Amino acid sequence: xxxxxxxxxxxxxWITIVTVLAMFTVLLLTKIRADLVFLGAIAxxxxxxxxxxxxxxxxxxxxxxxxxxxxFVVVAGLTHTGVLQWIVKHLLxxxxxxxxxxxxxxxxxxxxxxxxxxxxxxxLFVGIVKxxxxxLGISPSxxxxxxxxxxxxxxxxxxxxxxxxxIISGLYAENTGVAMNVLTTTIPGLFCLAIGVxxxxxxxxxxxxxxxxxxxxxxxxxxxVELLVPSDNPHIGETxxxxxxxxxxxxxxxxxxxxxxxxSPADGxxxxxxxxRLIYSGQIDEILDLKESHGLVSADHHVFTLSEIDSSRxxxxxxxxxxxxxxxxxxxxTSFEKxxxxxxxxxxxxxxxxxxxxxxVVLQAGDTLLLDCPPKxxxxxxxxxxxxHFFDSDQVPNIGKKTLISTTIMMAMVVLSAxxxxxxxxxxxxxxxxxxxxxxxxxxxxxxxxxxxxLMVFAGSVVLGVAIQKTGIAERLAFGILDVCGxxxxxxxxxxCFVGTFITEFISxxxxxxxxFPIMYQAAEKLGYEPFPFLVALMVSVSSSFATPIGSPxxxxxxxxxxxxFSDFMRIGLLMNLIILAANIFIVNIVYPLTPLx
Length: 598
Known about the structure:
Layout: E1 5-6, E2 9-10, H1 11-29, H2 34-47, H3 53-56, H4 63-80, H5 83-91, H6 98-113, H7 118-136, H8 141-155, H9 163-176, H10 186-202, E3 224-228, H11 240-243, E4 247-248, E5 251-258, E6 261-263, E7 277-282, H12 284-288, H13 290-293, E8 297-298, E9 314-320, H14 336-340, E10 343-349, E11 352-353, E12 368-373, H15 381-384, E13 388-390, H16 401-418, H17 424-437, H18 443-449, H19 452-470, H20 473-485, H21 489-503, H22 509-527, H23 532-542, H24 553-559, H25 566-591
Antiparallel strand pairs: 1-2, 3-7, 3-8, 4-5, 5-6, 5-7, 9-12, 9-13, 10-11, 10-12
């Protein structure tokens, strides 16, 4: 099979190319889980003989993948002891100008993201930034994109801050036998962060000034709630005025649906009957108090007993995620409400409430939903988050001595690894064990913190890198780049980093790092230079995706809350990509001068 050659690639190489292209197409165009897509790609490469058994499963034993898994436990300890909340509480303050607000926001977020999951940090900050922006009189959309950008740029500053750094450094260690220091990318990362903060301030006019989605729910003039009169309601037989259901606190009755007859405007002398649907306009929470005070129920389905009223239900805001199965559907035509025990109360899009029955709105990614929920959703919330993302959490950790303990453990892990006293893998294991021994988190919390889907993607990315290198694709591409760019190492480094920066707008940055590692490594060797500085530049590039909301999970987290449109990211993001690319190439070549191979 290997003897068959077409355009310089043998059959195994073509199988790998087709598999990689098919995998990325599936990830972009379907809702199939990423871990299943990567597992399928590994299976194809193994069954077709491109990789042997050891190579096909090398990702699962990769040092960098194991480190990522163990770090999930360390992050769980920090999260459950309130470290993030303490930092948020003491660092944001009350800045006087937008420039100071950006600095006060981006620097702590970047610092946290250097050691913790970017997604965890952004998920915590989103709700706080929304409240903070209201206090400062700044639109949340002016701060939420900088929040997401800061998490990405901060993650670059250490090897453990972002998965591509661990993947690339792990592959470098396997190829050379030399381990990178955990602070290898700190100076380049900090320089790019400083340039990024200054760029955001300078280009603030490119940031959209959108209304917060929740602002649509604060209006009392254009908001409707539908409630139903159950058949055993004590007010049946009374007029609407007598029952106190016409002019109510917080709103007005604007329509009565009596059987199939629509009465609008509502007549206060109309007799209340079981099964009547009452449509009110006004203040959300006050109108919903009618459920308890007047024995009404949410009109999601016909209810005939007061026992179905749950006075402990609460309003929660959620955002439709990218890839959600609810996209393109109206809630009223699905079993979503019944399956989860929730009732859709209102829908907002780009900061404006949609002026139609909420259960008939065809949903789009980023739509904001106001839901009437039980205290605890009836299904596993982890499965619900494939459709929606909730920002309010009932798990509010207590800040106390364990906060200090978990912080000490994390700092000890970083220092011991940075000084090369203990290798990073052993440091991570010791830190995870310490988190459990000192009860910063329990075993259940630690196990739930491990994201197995992400680990599968990381392992699959490593295997793809092995296949690309083994089949000679990396070498051929490296030669192709050298033919186009000549033998100038700076030009070659810039060209590969440029492609890497824009590829990672559409695929996982971990996959981009694993795919471009062998290409960059081979290109450096063909030029006769030590690959180390080339790979440091690559680490920064594949984590610098600013131009699309799908370029990073953190962009998706702020997309709905900011009321953004897809084009909002491109307006400022394309320029940010180029600015950070230039800063990256400049600083890496100063900190790590190119060294010829011996």
